Amino acid sequence: MKVSLNRLKEEIIPQGAKNTYIRLLIDSELVGNVFGTRWLNQDGQVMLWVTQLCVSRQWRNSRIATRLLEELRQKEDTCVGILSPHPFAFSAVLRVFGSDLGNSDLEMTKEHAKVVMESCPV
Fold first, then answer.
1. Whether the Cβ atoms of residue 92 and residue 54 lie closer than 8 Å to each other
2. 107 SS3 class
């Protein structure tokens, strides 16, 4: 079965969201990429969901993930999440979008997580 590019986009990429793909090439070699989805929640806040953050094994510990996330980041981002349990990916998100969990308001997360996730088009 042949699927058209437009049909594939409709099935995979959510409607009502802005999707961004950034890749980093060094000497024509793909060393890392990041894919993020932005949308407005019911309060009009800009939500960012990092759905993929990958760095080539030989380029890890070179701040590539940080550079990719800095390029993805926009000043209007209100809430950021990452779809990864990987501790290094999570640490890179904290470096770029926040300082550390000690300064995070987890009560705010507990209170608003359900609404944010329900509004997520991913």
1. no
2. helix
Helix (H, G, I), strand (E, B) or coil at 46: strand
- What is the pTM for the complete model shown? 0.76
- Phi (first) and psi of residue 65, to 5 degrees: -60, -40
Q: How many CB atoms lie within 10 A of CB 32?
A: 20
**Element (DSSP H or E) covering residue 119:** helix 106-119
| DSSP bridge pairs for 20 | 36
What are φ and ψ of residue 57, in 5° steps? -50, -45
pLDDT, one tens digit per residue, over 23-60 is: 999 999 999 999 998 888 777 778 898 989 999 999 99
For the record, the structure tokens of 106 come out as 């987890």
Tokens, residue 73: 């980041």
SS3 76: coil
CA distances from 105 to 36, 51, 95 (A): 23, 23, 16
Strand partners, 42: none
Q: First-to-last CA distance in the chain? A: 25
DSSP codes, 81-108: EES---HHHHHHHHHHH-S-GGG--HHH
